[in-house]
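Let us work through a complete example step by step.
Step 1: write down the sequence.
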Amino acid sequence: MDTTRTLLLMGGGGHAAVVADAARAAGWTIAGCLDDAADAAATAAVGLLHLGAIDDLARVRVDIDPAAFVHAAHGDPDLRRRWLERVPPDAAATVVHPTAVVSPSARLDAGVFVGPLAIVNARATLETGVIVNSGAIVEHDGHLGAYTHVAPGSVLAGSVKVGPACLIGAGAIVHRGRTIGARATLGAGAVAVSDIPPGVRAVGVPARPLVAATEPG
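Step 2: predict the structure and record it as tokens.
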């Protein structure tokens, strides 16, 4: 294998299949995947060769080639963080679909995924393990904290700041200059016209914190 473009995926589910498609389109050779929850038949169904469990990473890299790159391909931010912590810093691959538009002045850190038709505009920063999924837009001067996921079709206007481990749901919109606090969730289709505090789940138009129903009596 050409180890300069060989990629090993951590994860074998739906998101890993999306990453694999993007990586192949970008010229990577996919060696296979590591996954604790899926077996060979399950990963084969999404076109990935199952090479072992997550704990087998070091052994599998030696078997393939110690210079092979690795990408943590899972939607859960805590799993992505734990998995990437096992990867040597110079081996953590950033994968960008060739139909994505990424400004030359944008900064993409290790382990980032930018999906098909996504846009990352001027001076935007994507920290470690960020996902900008299919068709999402991160406008100029945006800053996405580590392991945040911007779901398909979302739009982050200029100068939006998103903390680490957030989820911006599919089709959500964040107005210019707003801040989304760490580990907050903006629901699918929501529109954030004001800041969202850390740890809050906000939904609706305009987005408001979701309040759990109280028990009667």
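Step 3: interpret the result. The two ends are 66 Å apart (CA to CA).
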